Amino acid sequence: MATPSPRTQDSQPSIPAGVPPVVARWVDEVRALTQPARVHWCTGTSAEHDALVAELESRGELQRLDAATFPNCHLYRSDPSDVARVEHLTFVCTKHRDDAGPNNLWMAPGEAHRKMDDLFRGCMKGRTLYVVPYCMGPIDSPYSRCGVEITDSAYVVVNMGLMTRMGTPALERIAREGRFVKGLHSTGELDPNRRFIMHFPEELSIKSFGSGYGGNALLGKKCHALRIASWQARDEGWLAEHMLVVGIESPRGEKHYVAAAFPSACGKTNLGMLIPPATMPGWKVTTVGEDIAWLHPGPDGRLYAINPENGYFGVAPGTSPKTNKNAYDMIRHDTLFTNVAVTADNQPWWEGREGTPAIDWQGRPYDSKNGPAAHPNSRFTVRAKQNPSYAAEADMATGVPLSAIVFGGRRRSLAPLVYEARNWRHGVLVGSSVASETTAAATGAVGVLRRDPMAMKPFAGYNFGDYWRHWLSFEHRLKHPPKVFHVNWFRQDAAGKFLWPGFGDNLRVLEWILARIDGRAPARETPIGYMPSPADLRTEGLDLAPGALEELLRVDVAGWRTEYGGLREHLAEYGDRTPKELAIELDQGLERLDAAG
Ligand code: OXD
Ligand code: MN
Question: What is the pTM of this model?
Answer without folding.
Answer: 0.96
